[in-house]
Amino acid sequence: QVQLVESGGGLVQPGGSLRLSCAASGIIFGANTMRWYRQAPGKERELVASISITGGTTYADSVKGRCTISRDNAKNTVYLEVNILQPEDTAVYYCYAARGGNVYWGQGTQVTVAS
To answer: Residue 42 to residues 56, 78, 95, 96, 101: CA-CA distances in angstroms?
Structure first.
């Protein structure tokens, strides 16, 4: 059974930072492209960052320069660090794994940026 379990969300003040984690099980983690998506209330889910099996990364323009995605294949975990958080970063953040035609989603973790 495949599981992606996110953690690290919460309430953060504007300008603060968060590090989200996603622990994967039931997949060959190192063979999967890993991504973070987010969905704000009333908006469509959007891609935040992606990391390939070789470690190549891409970022949405909205977080570029203040966001880092990384992976630890030994721990089957992908991370997302977001700095200089703004209220518009408030959303549920979802972990995503893909290999070939197989796609898996986590249950999401809420990030709220407010003073």
So the answer is: 31, 27, 20, 21, 29
Give dist(CA 110, CA 24) in Å, integer: 18
CA distances from 38 to 4, 45, 60, 62, 69 (A): 15, 6, 11, 12, 14
Task: Output phi, psi for 18, to 5 deg.
Answer: -140, 150
CA distances from 19 to 6, 58, 78, 111 (A): 11, 17, 10, 10
d(CA 111, CA 100): 30
- Judge contact between 69 and 80, C-beta under 8 A: yes
Could you read off the pLDDT of 15-34 as tens digits, one per residue?
999 999 999 999 999 999 99
- Mean pLDDT score, 63-71: 97
